[in-house]
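Async update (no meeting this week)

Hi team, since we skipped the sync, here's where things stand on the single-chain job. The sequence we agreed to prioritize is pasted below, unchanged from the tracker. I ran it this morning and attached the output directly underneath so nobody has to dig for it. Comments welcome in thread, and please keep replies under the output.
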Amino acid sequence: MSNRIVPSLLCLLSVVLIVLASPAIAGWIAIEKQHQPAGIETIYVDPEQIQRTDTRATLWQLTDLKWNNTTRFLSLKTHKEFDCANSRVRTLQVIEFSRQMGTGRSRSGYIENGNWQAIGTHGVDHALSKTACGKS
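Output:
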């Protein structure tokens, strides 16, 4: 190969890797604005990762925090299970990230035994259950 082709291929490969690693490519979509906490964080869901079985569904929620000087993380991914028939939700796993959009160092976060919680008629879990359970 000529000396000019190798740097061009490396540059192209670098661009492809950066694009593939981008959170926008991962399919994260912000939930409806009325369910977002005002100015504190943005909550996303990846519809492609929703798994449905019978009356249950699981999804991953990405919570991206604005600047936060009280904790060591700026985003977290939460794996949730929804009982669509009984309007309940429970947390299966939480992963905290040192940088925004699920990047940087990660560590397992705290969950409280994955207990079922009722889903209200408003709020984040209500919006997520509509997406997870396929309701409009």
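Quick observations from my side:
The CA atoms of residues 80 and 91 lie 5 Å apart.
Confidence is low (pLDDT under 50) at residues 6-25.
Reply here if anything looks off.
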